[in-house]
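User: What would this chain look like folded?
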Amino acid sequence: MTDPRRKLPAVDALLAEPGVVALLATHPRALVVKAVRDAVDGARAQGGKAPSEGWDAAVRAAVARMAVPSLAPVINATGVVLHTNLGRAPLAPAAIAALTRVARGYSALEYDLGRGARGSRHAHCRDLLVELTGAADALVVNNAAGAVLLALSALGRNGEAVVSRGELVEIGGSFRIPDIMARSGVRLVEVGTTNRTHLKDYESALTKNTRLLLKVHRSNFQVTGFTAEVGVGDIAGLAHGRALACLYDLGSGLLLDLSAWGLAGEPTLRGAVASGADLVAASGDKLLGGPQAGILLGTEAAIAACRADPLARAVRADKLTLAALEATLALYRDPETARREIPVLRMLTEAADGVKRRGEALCVPGRTELIKGESEVGGGSFPGATLQTWLVATRETDTARLRAWDPPIVARMLEGRVVLDPRTILPDQVEIVAAALRA
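Assistant: Here's the prediction, encoded as structure tokens.
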């Protein structure tokens, strides 16, 4: 018996079909060829059965699917403000404008316009970070893990770093602090226990090979009950008394105190710098509300050591990151402007009544109802903290139809129903979501 797959049309034959020829007029040839092969492979996988919709339609569908960028914008209706899977912090309009302005052409990335000679990309954002945090010096790299890696390499390579067992955290994507430390050329020395660590534990671990003491802020989980930990100020004091360095991995990058809105307990960058640590490492795309970036704040000597380390080039920030971060930082010169203009801060500080009004605009009579619920900060920040919110509860039991919308709407499940949290739906997205719910 003849295998039906032998009768499948050749790629060249399908490329000559009128419907496919029309696609070649509007799409790159390489894309159309790939789509044809995809359609033939699909038919082959079905035992040689031709597409029920016809070859032209199958190729057209494949072209449409392949032409869509993999990194697509989505609407975050989950209520998780700093949703790592959805790109964390959306940028402020000023940051988007700055990024676009720099991306449009050439820029003075490493050129000193005053001297007419080569400059340094490390100069960008430096003065603003010093002004806003009180640090003696600052450095921006590509992300927070890169900042920690660079700091460990610059201050502790070929030596030992002492850290509490209760602070050996795992961050997103299964990356762990011990693994990052190992890559930096620093040997990890664990002290204390999971729930209790004392200053004497650090003291007893010091040897002639000790280079630094590391403090890691537990930003994505809580340890409660019978616990004890040593503050970064005491750790820095011990380090400096022994001519050692102190590195504080802060994580979240909070610049504005949010305790007035019920979010307390997360250290600010200014407070971390004031603790006396030689270096403070933080993220740019979490509570700071900017682009993905790693921020290092500290003494002039410690920052100089980081700039001089060979890893500094491997983790350096690009022009788009620096432009967006600088514009975001500039908004913090007026805290109220920052709270109003930076989307993350606006969402975290918005009263439940405002969320309710947007929820009411989304409701479809007979299909949805407004119920009380909770939003989350996310992004490994304010662990355990929740924000009172209002949810648009639907009759749907699967989020697939919303994810298939253009642009995709990412919602969450609650007690078997799809719910949408207006807190994380941006103002210009409300009507889009309302149309999806009506449909």
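Residues 91-341 form a domain with the Aspartate Aminotransferase; domain 2 fold (CATH 3.40.640.10). If you want, I can go into more detail on any region.
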